[in-house]
Amino acid sequence: MVVNPPQNRLIGEMPKIGIRPTIDGRLGGVRESLEEQTMAMARAVANLLSENLRHYNGLPVECVIADTTIGGVAEAARTAEKFRREGVGVSITVTPCWCYGSETMDMDPLIPKAVWGFNGTERPGAVYLAAVSAAHNQKGLPVFNIYGRDVQDAGDTSIPEDVQEKLLRFARAGLAVANMRGKSYLAMGGVSMGIAGSIVDHAFFERYLGMRVETVDMVEFVRRMERGIYDPEEFQRALAWVKENCREGKDYNPPEKQQSRAEKDEAWATSVKMALIARDLMVGNPRLAELGYGEEALGHNALAAGFQGQRQWTDHLPNGDFLEAILNSSFDWNGIRPPYIVATENDALNGVSMLFGHLLTNAAQVFADVRTYWSPASVKRVTGYELTGRAAGGILHLINSGPAALDGTGEQSIDGKPAMKPYWEITPEEAGKCLDATTWHAGMLEYFRGGGWSTRFRTRGDMPVTMCRLNLVQGLGPAMQIAEGWTVELPDEVHTILDERTNPTWPTTWFVPNITGSGPFRDVYTVMNNWGANHGAISYGHIGADLISLCAMLRIPVYMHNVPEERIFRPSAWTAFGANEPMGADFRACANFGPLYG
């Protein structure tokens, strides 16, 4: 299995990070003495970001440094023009000294902004940081302040660890904002079984994310399948790969209702065609133009999508579990490649949650129902087993039919521990282990009358993960909830007893959120009881702080999280809305500044 080289499969250049070295503009001794130090700060930041960050598709993150230091409005304007030409989507201003705040600041209202004011005693970088932050806030242009904890000497060109952490957190979130802008969410179908998240809100995507919503009726899949609007050579190659790598498991349907071998084989063929068609609808396929389908070859420039499936499709045709699972994974018959973000049941809000996690981590995501809270007493009553360790306070059963990426098996590793990694770090052996850990089961016909194939695996324990979910609330708008925690493993016999009380053909993640002892994180039960919807998106790593920074940029308040206060990084203006009550301040600031795109 080859690892594919990075490529941009969507329309539009990858956004760059602009570095703005600002300076005291007084010539005759002051400016001249600061030129090298200021430009050295800019180069150091550019090196840090380009060496530590990549885009979600594996392409390198490029930094653009202003041609000169910025001492006044003329140089600020020249820099803004250069940034427009170069496609800059994120702005970081750096300085070791006093500068003229409103004359040197970045005035673009749509670009996320940060300022690093050097903590040194020779010149007042911190004074400029405070002054320009005040100017941003007065003009309604929120900015992230970066100020090192410890004083540095003027000749120190290193970037302290605390400053590095904030620069990288800001850049990751800022690039996520820039990468969403101008892209599409593709709704393949409409509302699934009355699920509110699949009532796709165009205004939310446009005003908060800068994305458009594209809608395609599911009959388009039937048209393309019946008329052969897919690459027939790739279809044969994909089907052969599936037969070799997708191991069938037990058919849990009653014997008298099980489909025949021929029907199951036909469901495999249809499922593979559905995956090809969904991908082509999202990002296009030049091969279709060669086959005479120029319009279909274009795609919808979709960074994320959702497939309705239930019930109109699944009552008659094979379910979408295969297309969702394989597209969400970091590998298929074409090798190891970036995952596609596809939400089951067209739950666009969980699709956005998955997209946020993907853009921040570059890794695949797990889509799941937040299905059951198992208390220690309930587990012991049903299985005789006493939960211990991280699971001692109870566990959440995360499970859904198809869209959990096979990366969610945890069969990849970092430093010998289970992980989910960016695709370019995944080895062919790890991809093979993910496939080996997964079985494919005939869809339960009571759910999926048209048949199909569902995945089954069990996520390995001891992985740090973050579950999040975006919700829409009338009168409030979008609001985010975040729960950092860990996956846990249960003894085989205990897992089997609990798992088979629900649908045993679906992948399971046993999740324990980090408990704080208060509020919605008083205990594991309370997390479940306060979760705002039936679905959640699970990312590898404790990325709650990154999600909070991203939401602040988009003006989406976070109403529930368990991220330690010292890790939270929001624009400086948020303090003015209630420094002693940061969660309430977040709501007030987001309401005050309004959606990023108006």
Automatic annotation (TrEMBL):
<dbReference type="InterPro" id="IPR038391">
    <property type="entry name" value="Fucose_iso_dom1_sf"/>
</dbReference>
<dbReference type="GO" id="GO:0042355">
    <property type="term" value="P:L-fucose catabolic process"/>
</dbReference>
<dbReference type="InterPro" id="IPR015888">
    <property type="entry name" value="Fuc_isomerase_C"/>
</dbReference>
<keyword id="KW-0413">Isomerase</keyword>
<protein>
    <recommendedName>
        <fullName>L-fucose isomerase</fullName>
        <ecNumber>5.3.1.25</ecNumber>
    </recommendedName>
</protein>
<dbReference type="GO" id="GO:0030145">
    <property type="term" value="F:manganese ion binding"/>
</dbReference>
<dbReference type="Pfam" id="PF07881">
    <property type="entry name" value="Fucose_iso_N1"/>
</dbReference>
<dbReference type="InterPro" id="IPR038393">
    <property type="entry name" value="Fuc_iso_dom3_sf"/>
</dbReference>
<dbReference type="InterPro" id="IPR005763">
    <property type="entry name" value="Fucose_isomerase"/>
</dbReference>
<dbReference type="GO" id="GO:0008736">
    <property type="term" value="F:L-fucose isomerase activity"/>
</dbReference>
<keyword id="KW-0119">Carbohydrate metabolism</keyword>
<comment type="similarity">
    <text>Belongs to the L-fucose isomerase family.</text>
</comment>
<feature type="active site" description="Proton acceptor">
    <location>
        <position position="345"/>
    </location>
</feature>
<keyword id="KW-0963">Cytoplasm</keyword>
<feature type="domain" description="L-fucose isomerase N-terminal-2">
    <location>
        <begin position="183"/>
        <end position="362"/>
    </location>
</feature>
<dbReference type="Pfam" id="PF07882">
    <property type="entry name" value="Fucose_iso_N2"/>
</dbReference>
<dbReference type="GO" id="GO:0005737">
    <property type="term" value="C:cytoplasm"/>
</dbReference>
<dbReference type="InterPro" id="IPR038392">
    <property type="entry name" value="Fucose_isomerase_dom2_sf"/>
</dbReference>
<dbReference type="InterPro" id="IPR009015">
    <property type="entry name" value="Fucose_isomerase_N/cen_sf"/>
</dbReference>
<dbReference type="InterPro" id="IPR012888">
    <property type="entry name" value="Fucose_iso_N1"/>
</dbReference>
<keyword id="KW-0479">Metal-binding</keyword>
<feature type="active site" description="Proton acceptor">
    <location>
        <position position="369"/>
    </location>
</feature>
<feature type="domain" description="L-fucose isomerase N-terminal-1">
    <location>
        <begin position="14"/>
        <end position="182"/>
    </location>
</feature>
<comment type="pathway">
    <text>Carbohydrate degradation; L-fucose degradation; L-lactaldehyde and glycerone phosphate from L-fucose: step 1/3.</text>
</comment>
<dbReference type="Pfam" id="PF02952">
    <property type="entry name" value="Fucose_iso_C"/>
</dbReference>
<feature type="binding site">
    <location>
        <position position="345"/>
    </location>
    <ligand>
        <name>Mn(2+)</name>
    </ligand>
</feature>
<dbReference type="InterPro" id="IPR012889">
    <property type="entry name" value="Fucose_isomerase_N2"/>
</dbReference>
<dbReference type="GO" id="GO:0019571">
    <property type="term" value="P:D-arabinose catabolic process"/>
</dbReference>
<keyword id="KW-0464">Manganese</keyword>
<comment type="function">
    <text>Converts the aldose L-fucose into the corresponding ketose L-fuculose.</text>
</comment>
<dbReference type="InterPro" id="IPR004216">
    <property type="entry name" value="Fuc/Ara_isomerase_C"/>
</dbReference>
<keyword id="KW-0294">Fucose metabolism</keyword>
<feature type="binding site">
    <location>
        <position position="535"/>
    </location>
    <ligand>
        <name>Mn(2+)</name>
    </ligand>
</feature>
<feature type="binding site">
    <location>
        <position position="369"/>
    </location>
    <ligand>
        <name>Mn(2+)</name>
    </ligand>
</feature>
<dbReference type="GO" id="GO:0008790">
    <property type="term" value="F:arabinose isomerase activity"/>
</dbReference>
<feature type="domain" description="L-fucose isomerase C-terminal">
    <location>
        <begin position="398"/>
        <end position="561"/>
    </location>
</feature>
